[in-house]
Amino acid sequence: MANQNDSFIDEVTDDLRRDRLFRAFRRFGWIAIVLILALVGGAVWREYAASQREAQARAWGDAVLAAQAEADKAAALSAVDAQGSAGRKLLSEMLAAGAEVEAGLSQKAAERLLAAAEGVKDDPVLHDLAQLKAVMAAGPAMDPARRDALLSELSKPGAPFELLALEQKAVALIGAGRTEDAVVLIRQIQQRDGLSEPLRRRLAEMMIALGAAPEQPAGPGPQTMTVAPAG
């Protein structure tokens, strides 16, 4: 008799447990369904967004290639649809500026690059790159005060293109006939960490052209000297 009672109690307990689970599922099961749908939907959306970005990048690249075949490359490149991407717009403008430099319109190219830099102020790397290329495109034709102001900002410690901007400072000093100051600055740059091999070679070539002694190994610590602007 005791066994029958125990069996009956177990059956009742199981029924109650199943009933509670069923009611809990009816009450909260929709949450699990929503979570599953969200996970699946998120994966599908990410895949779709990635394919859209790839398609846009491919379309932009094709448009750039087509623009480079036009008679007026600069205008065609500048007109390429950036599809809302500030980075793509800057690249188009940089390519257009390159076409203008090839056509002998260096000053126009520099103004284009400076204007393009204003569109990417929130991206320090792209912003500084556009400004540096503007200085390089204009060369000595740029107003000395404006060039010095740009290079002073671009060569601040920690700036993305600090060393390249310092190199352009040395170029400006040479152009202004201040060869001794240029030599001092070049030697300071040569003692900096992080010099790329191409930059190291260019600096060495400038020193040779200036008739200065080759780069010396760094001593206990480089002696720095503040060089006045070239203007």
Number of strands: 0
Count of the domains: 3
Largest sheet: none
Radius of gyration: 32 Å
H/I helix tally = 9
Helix and strand composition category: mainly alpha
- The outline comes out as elongated
Residue stretches low in confidence (pLDDT < 50, at least 5 long) are 219-225
Mean pLDDT: 81
Order of helices and strands: HHHHHHHHH
Q: Approximately what portion of the residues adopt beta-strand conformation?
A: under 5%
Keywords: Membrane, Transmembrane, Transmembrane helix
InterPro entries: SecYEG/CpoB_TPR
Organism: Paracoccus yeei
Protein name: Ancillary SecYEG translocon subunit/Cell division coordinator CpoB TPR domain-containing protein
Q: Please, could you describe this protein's structure?
A:
Keywords: Membrane, Transmembrane, Transmembrane helix. This is Ancillary SecYEG translocon subunit/Cell division coordinator CpoB TPR domain-containing protein. It comes from Paracoccus yeei. The chain crosses the membrane at residues 27-45. Pfam families: TPR_21. By secondary structure, the chain is mainly α. The protein folds into 3 domains: 11-69; 71-139; 143-212. It contains 9 helices and no strands. It has helices at 2-67, 73-78, 86-102, 106-118, 124-138, 144-154, 162-175, 179-190, 197-209. It is elongated and about 105 Å long. The termini are far apart. Mean pLDDT is 81; it is low at 219-225.
